[in-house]
Model the fold of this input.
Amino acid sequence: MLEPGYEGDSELTFALQSEFHKGFPLENFRPLLMSGNLHTQAAAAFLVAEISPRLSFNMNCVVAEIADLLDSKIAGIRFDAIEALLGCTTPADGAILGGVMLRLDDEHAGVRWRVTQFIALRNAGSYGSRWKMPPRFARNRRSRSF
Done:
């Protein structure tokens, strides 16, 4: 995947995904995420999006590299980066979360949709208790009627 002429290979991508599920170190994503080859970046973004919900906090070792993909010229890479960040960011990742929010202004409707899903899932606490509101705030939010 790191070869300069790499043009994508789904068999290789899925084989690599299998290795990460077996415990291959997640730090090994770093060179793939930082590659100058868009096919490699796309494969890496897809992999981290697929793996992130299952391994969540373990992906923190490459969260900055994933966040860098938010500026990719390929909409699919930006989409997958947002998906991956959903599973591996915490409230302490303020600058990265701000970068995700800026994608609400993305030129591609699918990327904008992914950001709205990111917000909705975070607010619902769907990705773990680290994002849930403290009970006193959640109670106040439910008691309001508009």
Helices lie at 10-21, 30-33, 38-55, 63-68, 75-88, 94-102, 109-123, 135-143. Residues 45 and 80 are 5 Å apart (CA to CA). The chain is about 60% helix and 0% strand.
